[in-house]
Amino acid sequence: MRKILSIFLLLAAMGSVAPAVSAQTANTPFTAPQYYATSFQLWSINQQSPNTYIFQGRNLCNSQGQNMNFFVFSTTAPVLIADSNSANSEVVTPSAIVNTAGSCGATVAPSHNHYTFQMKSGTAGLQEAINTLTQQGGQPAVVVLDKNWWTIANQIPGTYGTAIITAATGNYTVMLQDITTSPNTFYVWSGSAYTSTNANSKNTAPTIAAGASAGSSPTVTNSGPSTGITGIANVLTGTATTTGTIFTETWPTVANGGPQYDGTCVVKSVGANSYTTFTAAMSDTGSGTTFQRILTVTEATAAPTASTQYNFSYTCK
Question: Of 35, 63, 100, 151, which residue is the least packed, with the fewest Cβ within 10 Å?
Answer without folding.
Answer: 100
